[in-house]
Design goal:
Blueprint lengths: L8 H8 L6 H21 L5 H15 L4 H25 L2 H25 L1 H16 L9 H18 L1
C-alpha cells in the first residue's frame, strides 16, 4: 500500500523562513517542523520529487556560505534582522517558543541531510568501508577518549567524502 505524501511548498517556506515574532506562531512552526522531520526520517522516498528537491535547496542554502558580495550583504542584513528578532523575542518573553522552534528546525535540517546521504549509495559505501577498516583492528587498539573518538569519526567522514 503506497500513500502519496503532500507537503505544501508554502508550508516549507514558512518553516525555513519565518516572518514572525509571535510565541504562538513559533509553537505552530515548531510543531510543523517536527512533523515534517518525522515524515522525512520515516518516508523520504515517498515524498514527491519536487518537494524533496525544494527541501534539499533550503537545507543546502542554510549550510553553504554565501557567495559573492550580494551573498555577503544578504547575510549581513539577515544577521541584523536576527538580532532585532531575538531582542523582540526577549522583550516579549517568548524565549521558550523560539527555543522549541530552533530545536525543531535543527531536527528537520538534520533529517533532510541524513536522507540526502542515504540516497547517495557511493557515500554510504565509502563510509561503511572506512568504518569497517577502523573497527577491524579494534581489539589491538588502545582505549580512546571521547574527544579522540569524535576526531577519528570526523576524519573517517572526511575521508569517505574525498573518496567520492
Amino acid at each position: 500500500m503506497s500513500a502519496t505524501i503532500t507537503i505544501s511548498p508554502s508550508e516549507i517556506r514558512q518553516i525555513f523562513q519565518p516572518r514572525t515574532s509571535s510565541a504562538s506562531r513559533f509553537w505552530e512552526l515548531a510543531q510543523k517542523a517536527n512533523n515534517l522531520a518525522v515524515i522525512v526520517e520515516a518516508r523520504w522516498e515517498q515524498i514527491p520529487a519536487d518537494t524533496r528537491e525544494l527541501l534539499k535547496i533550503f537545507a543546502y542554502a542554510l549550510i553553504e556560505p554565501p557567495q559573492g558580495i550580494k551573498g555577503v550583504l544578504i547575510e549581513l542584513l539577515g544577521r541584523f534582522y536576527l538580532a532585532f528578532s531575538l531582542f523582540s523575542i526577549a522583550i516579549k518573553g517568548e524565549q521558550d517558543a523560539f527555543i522549541a522552534y530552533a530545536g525543531a528546525f535543527q531536527r528537520l535540517l538534520n533529517a533532510i541531510l541524513s536522507a540526502i546521504e542515504r540516497e547517495d549509495i557511493a557515500y554510504e559505501k565509502a563510509l561503511s568501508e572506512a568504518l569497517e577498516e577502523t573497527f577491524a583492528g579494534l581489539e589491538t587498539s588502545e582505549a580512546m577518549t571521547a574527544e579522540e573518538a569524535c576526531e577519528r569519526i570526523r576524519a573517517i567522514s572526511y575521508q569517505a567524502l574525498e573518496e567520492l
